UniProtKB/TrEMBL annotation:
UniProt keyword terms in alphabetical order: DNA-binding
Database matches in InterPro entries: Cro/C1-type_HTH, Lambda_DNA-bd_dom_sf
Protein name: DNA-binding protein
The organism's place on the tree of life at top rank: Bacteria
Species of the source: Streptomyces chattanoogensis
Glycoprotein recorded as keyword: no
GO molecular function: DNA binding
Signal peptide residues on this chain, from the entry's feature table: none
Length: 182
């Protein structure tokens, strides 16, 4: 790989970090490991071709162009966390991946506001994911950060909201949500 290609790859990975919270190669490798997949299976669940997945992982391509695929990535991240904490078994995860694969995106909220935990309360993580999905369906993380920077001097709290929910990690957004709900 020549210097220009290395620079382009580094730039793509930095864009991925700003848009998705980390380079897609790291995110996808974690999903593959946590969910017991291979690249071909992950590509199938996400609705990507294997070459496209490879290009995203290697930094040859920066952005996931299809919002439905971004939603499936978010759903797999949530599922991965549930597998890791033991709240979902491997068999249940396999079934859930088939459901995720069939989702077409459609409405960003997909009626998830009506899905509740066993206590009857909508989970904070689900609310945060809905906010993130809505923001990310309107604009990419780079544009959201630009908007936040524009607002920072006059509306710092709104700028922080945009940065945390529009371009940050879900864990940071959950912490922000919880801090501002008390």
């Amino acid at each position: 790989m020549d210097a220009a290609q290395q620079e382009a790859t580094a730039r793509a990975r930095e864009l991925q970090r700003s848009w998705y919270g980390e380079p897609l190669g790291a995110l996808f490798r974690r999903l593959i490991e946590d969910l017991g997949l291979n690249q071909a299976r992950l590509a199938a669940v996400l609705g990507l071709s294997a070459p496209m997945l490879s290009q995203l992982m290697s930094g040859q391509r920066a952005k996931i162009g299809n919002p439905a695929v971004v939603q499936r990535v978010q759903a797999l991240q949530e599922l991965s966390g549930q597998v890791a904490d033991g709240s979902v078994s491997a068999a249940e995860a396999t079934d859930r991946m088939e459901e995720i694969k069939k989702t077409a995106g459609g409405s960003v909220l997909n009626n998830t506001t009506q899905q509740t935990s066993s206590t009857g309360a909508t989970t904070v993580r689900r609310v945060v994911r809905e906010i993130q999905s809505l923001l990310r369906s309107v604009s990419d993380a780079g544009d959201i950060i630009d908007a936040a920077n524009t607002l920072a001097s006059t509306h710092p709290e709104l700028a922080e909201f945009l940065r945390v929910y529009g371009a940050g990690r879900t864990a940071d957004a959950v912490a922000h949500y919880e801090a501002h709900q008390s």
